[in-house]
Write a structure and sequence with these properties.
Blueprint lengths: L2 H22 L7 E5 L2 E5 L11 H13 L5 E5 L5 H8 L3 E6 L2 H13 L6 E5 L11 E6 L21 H9 L3 E12 L4 H10 L3 E9 L4 E8 L9
Parallel strand pairs: 3-4, 3-6, 4-5, 6-7
Antiparallel strand pairs: 1-2, 7-9, 8-9
Helix pairs in contact: 2-3, 5-6
The protein binds S-adenosylmethionine.
Length: 234
């Protein structure tokens, strides 16, 4: 990334923060009903609202393009309102979804129920892979907190990465089944290099699967897998 690109990203982040504080924070303070990717969902107070950011809708769209094989075992790390987990279950997967925010767990359970997939989505409370100790998955989905910095409030854990990327990368390999892979979405406004360094440090292979220019930011879907695995499916 050049100096100019870094400066532009910093300015966009500042603008986004201002927009969030002025116009969007209240939509995280009370219960709201939202529509996204053909799903009708409720957002409980303190839970990441996926309609206020541009990356989740794009990730949802990509997931409907055959990236989730029917019958696959899927883990959604940092499920928030549960939208990615619900989309994967709707594609025929068996899903475990994890979030460290108790309000997100309640929210995702409600949304899995109202969208008719609660028989295929199990939602668990906990930190990263701790709730799935000893379990392996064909596909791990993650729209992580990707802005740099340490979270200082529960809601900020949805945005500020802290050491999320390093710990996610360190433990991912233990939870991938044979030929398993992770699909991780990142934004050019976030700290992409820190995540990519964490994957490399953990000895993981990374390929770009999809990329979308959203004008104010670029969303990229990375496929992450252990190098011992053979060819990937697209
Ligand atoms: C950017 S939001 C994404 C939510 C949802 N997957 C989506 O795409 O709309 C990140 C989510 O990760 C959760 N999270 C942050 N740190 C976590 C951790 N250490 N373990 C589990 N979940 C975490 C947050 O609570 C938040 O719900």
């Amino acid at each position: 990334m050049t100096f100019v690109q870094r400066a532009v990203a910093r300015l966009w982040r500042l603008g986004l923060r201002l927009k969030f504080v002025l116009f969007q924070r209240h939509r995280h303070d009370r219960q709201v009903r939202e529509e996204i990717g053909g799903l009708s969902i409720q957002i409980l107070p303190g839970v990441f609202n996926p309609t206020l950011f541009r990356v989740t809708p794009v990730f949802l769209e990509w997931l409907t393009e055959g990236l989730v094989p029917a019958g696959s075992r899927v883990l959604d790390v940092g499920t928030g309102s549960g939208v990615l987990a619900i989309a994967a279950a709707s594609a025929g997967a068996l899903v475990v979804a994890v979030d460290s925010n108790p309000a997100a767990v309640d929210c995702a359970r409600i949304n899995a129920g109202t969208n008719g997939v609660d028989d295929r989505v199990e939602i668990r409370l906990g930190d990263l892979f701790e709730p799935v100790t000893g379990e392996k998955f064909d596909l791990v989905l993650c729209n992580p907190p990707y802005f740099p910095g340490q979270p200082t409030t529960p809601l900020e854990t949805a945005f500020r990465a802290g050491d999320f990327g390093r710990r996610f990368a360190r433990d991912l390999g233990d939870h991938l089944a044979e030929s398993g892979r992770a699909l991780v979405v990142l934004s050019s406004l976030g700290d992409e290099p820190a995540f990519l360094t964490a994957f490399a440090d953990a000895g993981l292979e990374v390929e770009i699967l999809r990329r979308r220019n959203l004008v104010s930011e670029i969303a990229t879907l990375f496929e992450v897998y252990s190098p011992s695995d053979g060819s990937r499916s697209r």
